[in-house]
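Table S7 (text form). Paired inputs.
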Amino acid sequence: MYKNEGSQYWVVEENNKIVAGCGIGPIKEWPHICELQKMYALKENRGTGIASVLLQVALDFAKKHYENCYLETLSNMIAANQFYKKNGFVQLEKPLNATEHFACDAWYIKSLK
């Protein structure tokens, strides 16, 4: 899935255990917009700064291939929504029509310029 140009996935490992990860991938019909995908950190690793570093690595990569970064999440994930806003993502009123995340109800975009 992350083998094509403009796609990449990163993990953070501590003591031989994966504790965080996220990916960047294309969005069909939107060649200038990528999607931040599968961003997570284990509960015990949240608040340590790992997610911020991981996000910056992903966005630095995305800037080389895209103009904007999009993501979808759940509105009840309050800390995640605050994290995305804190990192410059702007909430949208509706999703991009080319995505396939039917359960998500919060959508964000960030300019990479």
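Next pair, protein 2 of 2.
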Amino acid sequence: MANRQQTHSYETPVEEFAQALTTARRMQHDWLTYGVDFVHFYVEDADSNWLETWGNEDILGNKLLDAIKEFLVSSDDVAIRIRQNLGERSLFDLAVNLEVCWRIGESSDRLCLVRNLLAGEDENVDINNGELLNLAESLLEKLAEFSE
């Protein structure tokens, strides 16, 4: 369905996750650059009835992303701690990355992936590694609730 998708052989789940994040960022950039017309890059025959035939997995993914976005701006203690340590990074980007992490990440790798997302690229966060792992575990519990 996607014109820009390429088939890759991944050696580790982290590489697969990194590729998915790159794809999501490219899609977001195209959306900001081209507006609604960005869909023509990703959907063959965008003017057809593709919405009517869209699979349940895509719809569930959108519901999960919406739940994550709502959670991140909520008054939940975990959400507040995340916002306090997010710095200048975007809540929307974090929500998209968390949804991708949950969707494609192996359950055994999710704690590490979420911890890395919370730490950011330069790992300059205001909390120590133990607290960061605790926050990642709490966030994974919330994500599990959303995906039920």
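The chain has a mean pLDDT of 76.
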